[in-house]
Specification:
The chain is 39% helix and 17% strand. The chain has 413 residues and is α/β, with parallel strands linked by helices. An eight-stranded mixed sheet has the order 5-6-8-7-9-12-10-11, with helices on both faces. The protein has a four-stranded antiparallel sheet with strand order 2-3-1-4. α6 packs across α13. Bound molecules: arginine and zinc ion.
Length: 413
């Protein structure tokens, strides 16, 4: 009797992380609107977790969709897809198994650029690197999260006045773990290339890079402690027991008009108002305060292997569409040159889907012309469960694209 009570109370205080035994990730290929309707009814009945696109509402005929399904419903889904003659593949047969292979088994806790680091490790790393390279790196606090965690920002560049700046953020969506890994990699490459590599040295002499390793700190911690598949922030929603807002639907850019949900339980919930989240508010405030220097805004997500630029809240072409398209092409060519990783690029609305409230569109309309969203590796083989062995090649190739954009900004902004 007492043991049961004690066990229950322990479970309530520190729940074990969610497990994903037998869960599958499907890729379906809806051919027409009828197929899309079948998938929508499936999503309603089986509480599917959409990986790509981010919500069932964004599924379109002629484009594939990836979703995670719990083991109990996986066989029924398979039967229904077969019966409806909707082509499909199973990308991941047992998500728990894939997740266990995602991280290697050797000792964690210490920071590594080729491993996924938890928030404490990332915060200790950022403090260290700023202390180690005081003339090149400084750390400040951008703001505080809903749960009260500091959100740190690194400024990377040689000292100088009136420098143009490139802003790079990572970790908007909690489960996209390769994103924070890239921000760490970028800073490492910057400090180790300064005075060694001519191109990077000149970039660091002429530009400041603001690097935000993890924006959605609460969500990121939650993916480590409780649910690896969490996407949103962790704020409470009034009138609902569901938690969190999609930070990339929470900006004031066609806010909540399209490709976003007004239901608090959905993964693409736009929030109660634009910038309702402390995290997005802090980011927007910083960019507003530094609009005169910030010439480029790069936001790093995964997965899909895409380089996107405005607009995503409308099909209308951005004023700078042609130039942004040329820069995207140059960046993608640079990226692909290393390992032949294929990327698509273009305006967000046509290249993936219409989705309003994104930080890229907001930054662009606020006056940051070179505004891009990266969707890093892969294209779905592992999705969010990208193995640690892919961190290095992913970051190396992405760095080439980021340097291409920075170089363009240095010469043209
Ligand atoms: N997968 C990203 C998201 O849905 C893509 C963002 C593209 N930009 C946008 N403003 N929707 O958040
Ligand atoms: Zn994302």
């Amino acid at each position: 009797m007492w043991t049961i009570l004690i066990l229950v109370s322990i479970a309530a205080v520190s729940a074990e992380p969610k497990v994903f035994y037998g869960e599958k990730v499907f890729r379906v290929f809806p051919q027409d609107n009828k197929d899309v309707e079948v998938i929508k009814s499936l999503a309603d009945n089986a509480k599917l977790d959409f990986w790509s696109p981010d919500s069932v509402d964004l599924v379109q005929p002629g484009k594939f969709a990836d979703f995670r399904a719990e083991s109990q419903v996986a066989y029924d889904i398979q039967a229904l897809l077969e019966q409806s003659e909707i082509p499909f593949e199973i990308l991941i047969n047992d998500l728990q198994d894939t997740l266990e292979k995602q991280r290697d088994s050797t000792t964690r806790a210490v920071h590594s650029y080729e491993k996924y680091n938890n928030l404490d490790t990332i915060n200790a790393w950022s403090a260290n690197i700023a202390a180690q390279y005081p003339s090149l790196v400084s750390r400040s606090q951008l703001g505080t999260s809903y749960e009260g965690r500091p959100i740190y920002l690194l400024k990377v560049g040689s000292s100088g006045t009136n420098k143009k700046a490139v802003f790079i953020d990572c970790g908007f969506h909690a489960r996209e773990w390769v994103s924070p890994a890239f921000c760490q990699w970028f800073v490492k490459e910057a400090v180790s290339s300064y005075g060694v590599d001519g191109q990077f040295t000149s970039l660091l002499n002429n530009l400041d890079f603001y690097v935000l390793p993890v924006l959605n700190v609460d969500g990121y911690v939650y993916t480590w402690t409780s649910n690896r598949m969490w996407r949103k922030t962790r704020s409470a929603n009034s009138g609902s027991t569901c938690i969190g807002t999609d930070p990339n639907r929470n900006f004031n850019a066609g806010w909540c008009t399209v490709g976003a949900s007004s239901r608090a339980c959905d993964d693409t919930y736009c929030g109660s108002t634009p910038e309702s989240e402390r995290e997005t508010k802090a980011l927007a405030n910083f960019i507003r305060a530094n609009l005169s220097s910030i010439k480029a805004y790069l936001t790093i997500h995964s997965y899909s292997q895409m380089l996107l630029f405005p607009y995503s809240y409308t099909y209308s072409l951005a004023k700078d569409h042609t130039e942004l398209n040329n820069v995207a092409k140059g960046a993608v060519d640079a990226l692909t040159s290393l390992y032949r990783t294929r990327y698509t690029y273009g305006a967000g609305g046509t290249t993936i889907y219409l989705a309003a409230g994104g930080s890229d569109d907001w930054a662009y309309d606020a006056g940051v012309k070179f505004s891009f969203t990266f969707e890093l590796r892969d294209t779905g083989r592992y999705g969010f469960a990208l193995p640690e062995t892919q961190i290095k090649p992913t970051c190396e190739e992405t760095l080439l694209a980021v340097k291409y954009i920075a170089n363009y900004v240095q010469n043209n902004a």
